[in-house]
Fold this sequence. Notes:
Blueprint: E1 5-15, E2 26-27, E3 31-33, E4 39-43, H1 45-56, E5 63-64, E6 71-72, H2 82-87, E7 89-92, E8 105-108, E9 112-114, E10 117-119, E11 127-131, H3 133-136, E12 145-149, E13 152-162, E14 168-169, E15 172-173, H4 176-191, E16 194-197, E17 200-203, E18 208-214, E19 227-228, E20 231-232, H5 234-241, H6 245-250, E21 251-255, H7 263-269, H8 275-289
Parallel strand pairs: 2-12
Antiparallel strand pairs: 1-13, 1-18, 3-4, 4-10, 5-6, 7-8, 9-13, 10-13, 11-12, 14-15, 16-17, 18-21, 19-20
Amino acid sequence: MNRQGLTVTMVFLAESANYGEGVGNxxxxxxxxxxNYEQYTYISRQAMRYNMIQQLGWDDTxxxxxxxxxxxxxxxxxxxxxxxxxFGYMKTSSKEEGKAEKGGALTRSAVARLSNAIALEPYQSDxxxxxxxxxxxxxxxxxxxxxxxxxxxxxxxxxSIDLDRxxxxxxxxxxQTDKAERVKALLDTIQFxxxxxxxxxxxxxxxxxxxxxxxxKNPFFENRIILKRGKIQIDTLQEIxxxxxxxxENTVIGVASGVFGNDSELKKSLNAGTVKDAFIHLKxxxxxxxx
Length: 291
């Protein structure tokens, strides 16, 4: 059977990387709660996508606001713009142009699907106290005071790519070589991803990677990374890997040395290599699929 689904789940370490709407003079992190009342910060998939597209240099797809909403321009095609090839689009054209149906909307669902990056460690209500004393002293002015929520944690997220849909949109189709190059460029960017926020540059490069190219287009390892006392739970991952021959034969794992308390056990029990080797393997899988 043809293995058309590429899915990768990654873990990175970052600090306070996505803020929501503030309250008064407090900048609040984006958070979600679980049934045990613990709060977990997260970086939205939109924020992750923004950084990926920017660092890929794909943020030049034309847009317009003629429909009353900022959308991708009707003239933009997947042949010319990789952004809308991998991450989809909604475009509105007039019926007179003969380009759209049912209200003039053309859509393409995402080929590369991102999850939110969710903290693996709960938020403990830490606050940073801020003033503008350095500037205020220059003119003997009063300090401005602000507070900002802070959280340093490991985060996990997943990307899943439908390899059979890359570079194909109706009658449009790009070469197999270009399809492979687009997917590999995305993987390269993910491997060295970063995020600029509040004067900081946060390193979002993964320190743990698990995934592969499979028959089923299922994000097998999403929500399966469990961190306890600085150790990744191996049993959870082993159960998934051993649940199916396709997963067992085609899964690759990479881990950075010295980051987790059980990295030696991860390498021994799960045959994990380095993060670099995992991405090399994934890119070879892409090349194999596209011939």
